[in-house]
Write a structure and sequence with these properties.
Elements (H helix, E strand, L loop, with lengths): L1 H17 L4 H4 L10 H20 L1 H20 L5 H8 L5 H21 L5 E2 L6 E2 H23 L10 H9 L1 H7 L10 E5 L5 E4 L7 E5 H8 L11 E3 L1 H9 L22
Helix pairs in contact: 1-6, 1-7, 3-4, 3-5, 3-6, 3-7, 4-5, 8-10
Length: about 270
């Protein structure tokens, strides 16, 4: 599965971003719900482990998920409703360089397992089961999207690669989900996409003759569907009511409906 290599390459790019950060820098608060860089890396590591267990040891995955649900309820009683509080306890507040190296060692361990797996193999997850290919692609998407908050707080311009096409596809394939989770009927037709890849290639999806269109940089489309940017903070050209509504509420990840960040709140800090 080439998606496994894409996941590894993206993880390595994030590692290069954080590997030399000091303990103080790792505690910087990012634009993602006030999470620190440490909290984001813990989150990525824990759910990488969960994905690995779902592939290699389903019983361990189910035990972890049960522990997580119980732990979240206990945290909520204390007013600690964010997942990051459970995750910090689960990893004994692992932080800084030891956290970064633990995270890296694990994603390097899990990648060959996914690369060798049958892409169509079903694996368990928090919601419905999914294919192994979808599982590792989802890990790529989540690692990429959460890392945007780290790039932003450090004032580092991200150099994306064409592997983000995986995220474009997730965004497009969750068109119907976006409306469903917001309790709306998905309007038809699905907008035509004309996106410029990091390499300069043009990616096109759908019927170009429709008046429903979204055109611009692929990375900005990915930012909107992963809710790391408000559509108003991009240069995407959006035409038609279906496309306009989609970009206003786009959500390519599972869970309850989430509101995109307000305009101007998720931007890159000055270096």
């Amino acid at each position: 599965m080439e998606q496994a290599q894409d996941f590894l390459d993206e993880s390595e790019a994030i590692y290069e971003l954080v590997k030399d950060l000091s303990d103080e820098q790792m505690e910087q608060v990012t634009g993602f719900k006030g999470w620190s860089i440490n909290a984001i890396i813990r989150h990525l590591h824990i759910w990488n482990m969960a994905a690995y267990w779902s592939l290699t040891d389903p019983e361990k995955f189910h035990a972890f998920f049960k522990e997580m649900m119980t732990g979240m309820k206990e945290k909520a009683k204390k007013g600690e409703k964010s997942l990051r509080f459970f995750e910090a306890d689960y990893l004994d507040n692992l932080s800084g360089t030891p956290l970064v190296e633990t995270w890296r060692n694990f994603y390097q361990k899990m990648t060959p397992e996914f690369a060798a797996a049958d892409p169509a193999m079903r694996v368990e997850w928090a919601g419905p089961s999914m294919s192994a290919r979808s599982s590792i692609t989802a890990r790529l998407m989540e690692n990429w999207s959460h890392a945007q908050a780290i790039y932003d707080v450090l004032g580092v311009k991200r150099e994306n690669q064409d592997r983000i096409r995986n995220i474009v596809m997730i965004g497009l394939n969750t068109y119907g989900w976006t409306f469903k989770v917001n309790r709306e009927e998905a309007p038809q037709p699905v907008p035509y996409l004309k996106l410029t890849a990091p390499s300069g290639a043009i990616w096109e999806y759908g019927d170009k003759n429709t008046e429903e269109k979204i055109e611009g940089l692929a990375e900005e489309f990915c930012q909107v569907v992963t809710q790391t940017r408000n559509i108003a903070d991009t240069d995407l050209e959006v035409s038609g009511p279906n496309a306009t509504r989609w970009m206003a509420i786009a959500q390519c990840f599972a869970g309850a409906a989430e509101k995109p960040p307000a305009p101007g709140t998720r931007v890159m800090r000055a270096a």
